[in-house]
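Workshop exercise sheet. Pairs work together: one partner reads the sequence aloud, the other fills in the structure field after running the prediction. Swap roles for the next sheet.
Pair: D.N. / O.F.
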Amino acid sequence: MKALLLSLLLTALSAPLAQAAERTARILAAELTCPSCSYIVATAIKSVEGVRIQEFTQGKQENTGIYTVAYDDELTSLQDIVTAILDYGYPAKPLADNGS
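Structure field:
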């Protein structure tokens, strides 16, 4: 009986954890006019809890870059990441193929 109760308790406690998921997204940042700009945008992204940068690639348009990020949707949202970049003074928007 104790084993059953313990099992039920552990299942109940872990249920909220099972709902959290790592998401990936691609974010386009603009006005990257020098190498420092990419570093500053990366700093903005890393300032958001639960986010890590997986990849950076040059954008198709001049002075743009695409950041592929992974984030814990229990800790933050894609909008929070974009807002952090905007707060650092760089235009940014999520790309349509985000989330997985």
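Discussion prompt: Residues 2-19 form the longest helix (18 residues). What would you look at next?
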